[in-house]
Structures are given as C-alpha cells and as structure tokens.
C-alpha cells in the first residue's frame, strides 16, 4: 500500500524560492517543432477522442461490447445518430449537475484543506512554484459522502451513476472543452509563461497541446488540480459504483470484479498518497495545459479507465483460483517496479542525500543534473513505464477473452507510453545533448529490458 512521503523533500520545499542566476532573455520562444502529427493530428485528437468516449458509453451495453445495436447498424441508423434529436437525447441535465457537483466538491476541499507544501521544478523565469499537496485529505472527504449514503439513500446513488453513465460521459466531454477553451484564452494574458512545445502560433495545435505552463486562478493551480484529483478520484468512485451495481444485480461481487476494483483503487489511492511525485513528471514540468491534459484528466481517465468494471456489471465473470493467483502476481510485480522506480527517481531529483541512494551510480551532465545508470534505471530508460504496463494488463485479464473492448485500456496505454517515451527522449536529447548519447550507450533499452 502507499509508501511514506519523505519529509526531506518537504523541508527543501520551504527554502527554495530564490531565483537562479541565469534566466533566458526570451522567456516564451516560438515553438518550431510539432508532435502528435502537427495541426492535423491535433484536430483528429480533438474530434475523435470524444467520439470514442461516446462510442464506449453509448455503443456498449448488456447486449455486447460493442452492443447488438452497433453490430446491426445500417448506414441510415448511423446517419440518424447525428440528428438533432439523437444529440439532444445525449444531454442529461441531472448527469451534468452530478458531474459539476463532483468537480465543485473537489475544488472546494482542495482550496480549504491543509497540506504540505512542495516545490515544483525551477521555471525558465527563475521562479519555483509551491504546490499544496492535500490530495489525500480531499480523497478522505468522500467518506462523508459514504456516511451520508449509509444513513440515507443507501446504494441508490451508485446505481444512479451506472444508469446515467452516458449523460455523465457527455458532461465530462463538455466540461473538458469548456476548460480547454478557458486555458487557451487565458494563455494570452500578459506575463503568462508558455510551454516550450505549445507556442507554435497554430490555434488548433496550441489549443490541443497546451499553451500556458502553469495557469492559476487565485490559489488554485489548475494543471496540478486537474492532474490527479478529478481523474484518479473519479475512476476510483465510479469503479466502486460499478461494484455496488453488480452486487445489486447479482446479490454478490464476483472475484473478477473484486480484483479489478481493488487493483485500480490501489493505483488511484497510491498516486494520490504520493501526490508530490507528480511534480517531477513531464505533465507538470514540461507540458502546457490544454485540451490534451484537460480532456485526458477530466474525461478520458475517469470515463474510460474504468471500462473493465463496467463490463463486469454487464457480463459478470467468475475466475478460477489459478487465474486469480496469476493475475495477482502480475499486478504485484508491475506495482513493485513502477513504484520503486518512480520513488528512486523522485528522491534522486529532490533529495539526493537520501541514504537510500548510496549505491546509485550516475553520470554527470553539462546541463547540471545527473542521470542514474544502475538500479531500476540501469535496466531501461523508462523501466517505470514497463511496471505500469504490467499492471495495466493485470486489470484487463479479469474480464476474460470474450470481447477485445475491455482491453482497450491496455492497448491505448501501451501506445501512450510508447509515444510518451519518444517525446521524453526528444526532450532529453535536447536538454543533455552528447551526455544523453553517452547515457543511451550505458542504458540501451527504452522500456522493456532486453527487448525494446
Ligand atoms: P518519468 O517519470 O520517467 O520522467 C522522465 C524524466 O525523468 C526525464 O525527462 C528526465 O527529466 C528524468 N530522467 C530520465 N532518465 C533519468 C535517469 N536515468 N536519472 C534521473 N532522471 C532521469 O516520465 P513520466 O513523467 O512520463 O511518467 C511518470 C510515471 O507516470 C510513470 O510511471 C508512468 O508510467 C506514469 N504515467 C501514467 C499515466 C497514466 O495515465 N496512468 C500517464 C503517463 C505517465 P530531467 O532529467 O529533466 O529531470
């Protein structure tokens, strides 16, 4: 379960506000490269990802994944989907209210609960932003909701979530667009520090990739808030709702559902408990805040990552004891690699004097930061992705092999990490130059040791 946070990182947080000597003259240079297929790729992502979310919500039900309705669709049926009535039927005011209430709940508790303050990476303008990591306390606030349900409406709210699933998905799509439009417009405010990759001048591309690095509304750091709370807590809560719905339908919870919900809850709770670790990830240090992060965290993660649990409500499955043991072993192996690799890297960056790092070897670089060359980081350049992938597979296997759709998470995630690895490689090559080439010779594998 969750590991203890390092207090050393915290004490460093309290003394790291002084600007460094060299600050580049041009703070917001024009971006001269494209990722994700440039403007065309960006337009495709903005269009097709929400449609895919809709397809998974509307086009998968008790009749199949995909549903019989989808499998027997004629061209006229398909065109009718885009009629005004069909589109209007997707809008569910109660679901929109429920989704917004969830976001407001998170914002309210984020702004009022106390948490330890941690430093972010030093920005190009020399500043170090502080982040109040109170995510775990915000998560605990949901216990009051559980107590309210136990005393009042019982399991009805959980079943409500299952029944209003399409409307909740639509609400999250609309809200992601609203937030992305706000983020894009806000990035033109004077003084905004832009992401090095998000200032091409092409509207659709910058809108998608994210233009401003750290948009804030008062005390609320929007990117940091969106990064973990809505996605991880939404995923956790909706999975719990799906398990309760299965219990309501069957009178019991299958072992496959238990595995999926426990594994995924473990991942969500662990990431929230270790919230400070997010401060050294690419999302926070490099990427601008735009559609990619807003949609990914406000819609895609909470709506799509829990697909396995929803599938198991519609198609309950009992696993054999051997299957259960093998799946648990895969999950534990993946988690161990993922968590220990990320923790070592975080300590190495934020608290290099940590005694746990005494056996770590590294190379010095001209950029000033060191690169580890042994322990987990000697096996591959993104061994943490490998652990994450093993876990992703262990969450899909409990759904059996009747439909490929519950495996969407694994395939999507493998693609995401493969692509992300390429992006990070590009960033590191630019940052470290010759030193990165030297590092790649010492650690030749990208993700899977001995294979890739
Ligand atoms: P990493 O945590 O791997 O961070 C990459 C950065 O680490 C590099 O840019 C570099 O930054 C630094 N680094 C690279 N190699 C070394 C080294 N040898 N020694 C020291 N520092 C090094 O990548 P991500 O931010 O992409 O991922 C973080 C975690 O989040 C991963 O476990 C990933 O699986 C997970 N993740 C999960 C997602 C999900 O949807 N569930 C989505 C994306 C990621 P620098 O040198 O500049 O400090």
TrEMBL record:
Pathway: Steroid biosynthesis; zymosterol biosynthesis; zymosterol from lanosterol: step 2/6. The keyword NADP applies. Its main location: membrane. InterPro entries: ERG24_DHCR-like, Sterol_reductase_CS. Residues 1-22 are annotated as: Disordered. It comes from Umbelopsis ramanniana AG. It is a multi-pass membrane protein. It is found in: Membrane. The keyword Transmembrane applies. GO terms for biological process: ergosterol biosynthetic process. It catalyses: 4,4-dimethyl-5alpha-cholesta-8,24-dien-3beta-ol + NADP(+) = 4,4-dimethyl-5alpha-cholesta-8,14,24-trien-3beta-ol + NADPH + H(+). It is an enzyme of class 1 (oxidoreductase). One of its GO terms (molecular function) is Delta14-sterol reductase activity. GO terms for cellular component: endoplasmic reticulum membrane. The chain crosses the membrane at residues 40-59, 94-113, 134-160, 166-184, 250-269, 289-307, 319-338, 392-418. This is Delta(14)-sterol reductase ERG24. Belongs to the ERG4/ERG24 family. Its EC number is 1.3.1.70. Keywords: Lipid biosynthesis, Lipid metabolism, Membrane, NADP, Oxidoreductase, Steroid biosynthesis, Steroid metabolism, Sterol biosynthesis, Sterol metabolism, Transmembrane, Transmembrane helix.
